[in-house]
Write a structure and sequence with these properties.
mainly alpha; 0% strand
């Protein structure tokens, strides 16, 4: 969601010449990428934990 919102803000900033809005858009995109990376890492860690489960 943040990535899409960021792309829209960045595009609007470029069209209107609003550098601040453009920068906000880039920041929102970066936040979206970071959230995605954290979710991926969390999913991989959970998968590793599940695969190393107790075999008793």
């Amino acid at each position: 969601m943040d990535k899409a919102k960021g792309r829209a803000k960045e595009a609007a900033g470029k069209v209107t010449g609003d550098r601040r809005k453009e920068a906000e858009g880039k920041t929102d995109q970066a936040k979206g990428k970071a959230k995605g990376a954290m979710e991926d890492a969390r999913d991989r860690a959970k998968g590793m934990k599940d695969s190393m489960g107790d075999d008793s």
